[in-house]
Design brief:
487 residues, 9 strands, TIM Barrel, 2 domains, three-stranded parallel beta sheet, homotrimer, uronate isomerase, domain 2, chain A, mainly alpha
Chain lengths: 487, 487, 487
């Protein structure tokens, strides 16, 4: 086991059967052609050390407030990360053996879970999970040993040792990684006390901002919706029993988020349909939803009107509106029932934006205060719909490759598909979308490397001069998040 | 400012802050790998100087007839080109500041619009607009200065100067660019007097041919349809008040176009649905449409029958039938209302050909006289539907990448996707589809370079011998337009 | 004409106008970049000579049992292969001139058909057909002459000569090609006598196994369905006049197939919809279908329930379930009527798996005995649906690129799209799906070369170590078929 000089700096002997590799290669992810690689290397150097701005993600603010050491290697890198657990599940490992949905694991269970990850290392070949884990093990712990059945225990020990050092506590990582801004994702009823405490703590130099995520309040067909809206009303101090009360409650909670530094409101529904209702119809359907007499089409109609209202509010309060549609959540009911949501079986659906978003865009698409970021898991809509929309509407940006598509070849396809139609500036800038704090720098670095490679390709084909490419890359890293999220 | 030796040959001093670059690189757009690039360079050399055949485009015949100098740089390169204005609009530039929809601009307004283009030059990085403009500025005006706020005025002056020279009048450009055939796009009621005059003018060596574009007469649900069909009947000298009259009028106008050199009829509707009606039903729905009592589904049914009729006529008169479906025109109503159509917010829709075209293909798909070119803006249908159709039906050709997809990486994807299923010969040959005369050679050269690169890749992988690749490339440039459009 | 040393070893003189090329290049299909190519070459060498396992294809067991010489070059390489005949048909060659649907051709007709193939050689440039034919001519006959009008007759003679040698009989090819396992495709009512005879023949070292393909019995809306189910019942020795009888007959025939070595059941319907019916409803709809009073939606509902039943049976008998959905069969009715099915005009449809398969996956998706391989002709579902499904469900594998997509660039796109989401191990391994025995080794070698190139790319980008890439490639060639088909 090799330990490069890092904060953790744990060094152990190499056990039999372990393969110790070199540190991650400085040219990783850059184009293979030597000429293009040279160009890409020079471009990447311009942005490699720029601070990280993370305008959308899922790190928990409480984790940063408490700043407790991570419990164990499984809790840090495995159990809570559905990118990792889903592929192990597909390979025949039951989720319970990975600790999913079981609260804190004892040392035996955590180590057993970790061994399963290491034993199945080959299933991650070619995936970004492999790339992020490898990079995280090196950067945070100085480890370059390849995970395997043989190396599992010594890796576990090395990581566990590292976690006891102060340099690997959550706040220390924020500093060490140069994270300037970190957005969390939060329920509109949240009091945001953790955010306030972090903001008021002078030792926290990262700007930790909440994100307004009101999905559950826009789904009048869900069983919990009535109770949810009651809770929303309570948080806002208004009666959410009527349509007008719902609107007022939303506005008040958005204002609360705005005061706590929020820069965006995030929405994820089955589709992005928007369709205005008359005030009377909205009130009527809302009342029916409260009375649980609403039909499925009515609930959908109300949701589409609500989404339109959220766009209106964004034009007024300036929260950037981000849309992450098109996923069948909890595809495997039995797994949802046993292990809860976000357990690896959310499966995408066909995307459709052109007609679905038209009512919203006809009303607000050229409004000077709206910024609307459209994400998709259906690559076929990129050249067909998203890039053409972002190439006309000043409010619209094409969201960075997301979730299943946040990976090297997918990012390349995305950049190649979108750029020719919408240019570089109509894109959102990179978004890590992760709850895995340790992987944040590896993810941002991956995006920077791939954008450097993409721009180097344009230079190599004489479509862009080298100085323009460098300027464009800095704009992608610094300019896009600043413009798109008002940071 | 650098002036290479060209017809315009305007040379000015370089202002402070201007960046003067080299002329467009001879290897631009060729593959980056040195070995493949060598092969591609040799292939491209075989076709670089072949004449241009443009079987589908939107240059105005009147422009060629009048042969007046282009008014100013904005009128030449900016205001009428929705490829350019849409990205500026997306970047926050109001269309009115670009002169859209305002008729001729005075010098102050034209220069102001031009400055906006130059100031926002970075938004075009990575897009084909950037490539075409750069190439046009060099080839026509000898300019290699990079557009910017600093260089805007001197570029404007240089282009404006150039436009006063005889070598930059429209007809001179036809000669200079080696355009052998140029197809325009025309209304069936057009008398085609401009085409006749050009044909009869011995100094015009380019064959300027009209294209029959009857969309509006096939949309019985549109408010203007009744008046349109009246006008069609008048042009044909028949009463278009009945279904039989409509059919006869269409046939007569197609014959008129044929006599004036037309080689194709072009169609662009929301979908390519074709479905036969009985003669009685056709007559009945036609009458209802005339009486404005037709329902939306009936109007669609009639349109689908009409499209089938157009295919039948193509089997009889030999006009190649081209289909450009799947666009939501005028997506942003307020912009349409203020600035008119073709102002940058036509947004594609999902494509569907397999079942939609089946009635047409069952009737006429193996007819020896039919040639049917299918274009799409939905890349997902290329391997799924278009290439399989073109790989069986002798009438069907896959149309070249169109509109948003007429760009280097998109063209590569298109060629890679289509070729393995349908081969090279079942494609249409390049189509520039442009109203920007100045960009015609840059567009054709772009396609030739990309095809050279694609074929070089096949040679490098030992899938094709070099002599075969050269033959294939010549066939794409010369053979395809000749066969597909009977030129 | 050049004859490299092969079993056939026919050598003739080179006629005027013939082009004799070199043997297929050892680096064919490997990446063009010299560094990546070196890596790929080394990887390919590790698997180049491994035996062929073909778990899904369409070679006829009777052909192997009779072991008669192939009749003539057209019967061997042209007439029965719709990959070849469709592109000739698209190029204007009538199917009857190729011998399609006419039974054995006499020498004159066979030679005339062969000449048409050679004359139109250019239409195959860039397609896999060209690659396979070229490779087959070399590997089996030692021929490197390029097909053309000039070389047609001498090529015909050389191939015809070769076919008289014992080394080119079907069974000799199995040996020579190192085919360890070959799956055929068979009707559930088939007695599998040919398979039994081959199994019992000690001189046949290839394991020739049947595949259960029950499509026709799951389509209650088809005119022949009642007679088909009668035949199924007869084969099973039960009365298939009731729903319970149908289920029992299917189970008995699957057991019969299992006893004859079958490892999978293959299904190809318009969609993969699965939806449970109550036993009473199933019985009722079945009776209505027998009575020919079933409606179209009822027939579809019954088919979807039947498919669910097939999944249940797979969990019980262990036959791997493969799904090949989404094709409009017999798109051109007149051609179907005259020449029959599989004549080149089956055209794909949009794919949809997420919701369609959900009932099946909620029931059986995590069942330890189910293996379910999902194939698609709609590339847009790869990253959107198939890879996410295979990345969670332990039963699901992404099927190798199929039919129109079984070609170099398509395979690369497939691997690039699927791997980042589902890894390498959640894929099926290569499947040749061919009835052209002679092309089997060329097809498997093509896949091995492309996978070597893909993995070399990961190594070149430092995403995988070289030893891991080698291990992964062996797993794709040996491990995947073993796991996915229980071989």
């Amino acid at each position: 086991m090799t330990a490069a000089g890092t904060a953790a700096g744990t060094a152990n002997g190499t056990a039999v059967g372990e393969v110790t590799g070199p540190a991650p290669h400085p040219d990783r992810l850059l184009p293979a052609d030597p000429g293009v690689r040279r160009l890409a290397r020079a471009l990447h150097a311009e942005v490699a050390d720029l601070p990280i701005v993370s305008p959308h993600g899922h790190v928990d603010a409480g984790l940063l407030l408490q700043d407790a050491p991570f419990r164990d290697p499984a809790a840090l890198l495995l159990t809570p990360d559905h990118y990792v657990t889903r592929l192990l599940h597909a390979s025949g490992v039951p989720l319970q053996e990975l600790g999913v949905g079981q609260g804190p694991l004892d040392e035996t269970a955590a180590r057993a879970a970790w061994r399963l990850l290491c034993r199945h290392w080959a299933v991650f070949a070619g995936t970004p999970v492999r790339y992020w884990l490898e990079q995280s093990l090196h950067d945070a712990f100085g480890l370059t040993t390849r995970p395997s059945s043989e190396s599992a225990d010594s890796l576990y020990d090395a990581v566990a040792d590292g976690l006891t050092t102060p340099g690997l506590r959550p706040r220390a990582l924020l500093e060490r990684f140069g994270i300037r801004v970190l957005a969390t994702t939060d329920d509109p009823a949240d009091d945001l006390a953790a955010h306030a405490a972090l903001r008021d703590d002078p030792t926290v130099r990262t700007r930790v901002v909440p994100t307004f995520r009101p999905d559950r309040y826009l789904e009048p067909g869900r069983p919990s919706w009535r109770a949810d809206t009651d809770r929303l009303g309570d948080a806002a101090g208004v009666d959410a029993g009527t349509w007008d009360g719902w609107v007022e409650a939303m506005q008040l909670r958005r204002a609360h988020f705005r005061r706590h530094g929020a820069v965006s409101a995030d929405h994820s529904h089955e589709d992005v349909g928007t369709q205005p209702l008359s005030p009377a119809d909205a009130a009527r359907l809302y009342a029916a939803a409260r009375a649980r007499t609403v039909t499925v089409p009515e609930a959908t109609a109300l949701r589409r009107h609500m989404l339109l209202e959220m766009a209106r509010m964004s034009t007024e309060d300036g929260l950037t509106m981000t849309l992450h549609p098109g996923v069948r959540r909890g595809h495997h009911g039995p797994t949802s029932a046993r292990f809860g949501p976000d357990t690896g079986h959310d499966i995408p659906l066909p995307g459709a934006f052109t007609d679905a978003l038209r009512p919203l865009l006809e009303r607000y698409g050229t409004h000077p205060s709206l910024r609307l970021v459209l994400f998709t898991l259906d690559e076929s809509v990129l050249s067909r719909e998203l890039a053409p929309l972002a190439g006309f509407y000043p409010s619209v940006y094409v969201g960075a490759p997301w979730w299943f598509l946040d990976a090297p070849a997918s990012i390349r396809r995305w950049r190649e598909t979108v750029t020719e139609i919408a240019g570089l500036r109509r894109t959102s800038g990179f978004i890590d979308d992760t709850r895995a704090l340790l992987s944040v720098p590896a993810r941002h670095d991956m995006a920077r490397r791939l954008d450097a490679g993409f721009l180097a390709g344009l230079v190599a084909e004489h479509r862009l001069d080298e100085d323009e490419a460098a300027e464009a890359l800095v704009d992608l890293v610094v300019g896009r998040p600043a413009e798109v999220f008002g940071l």
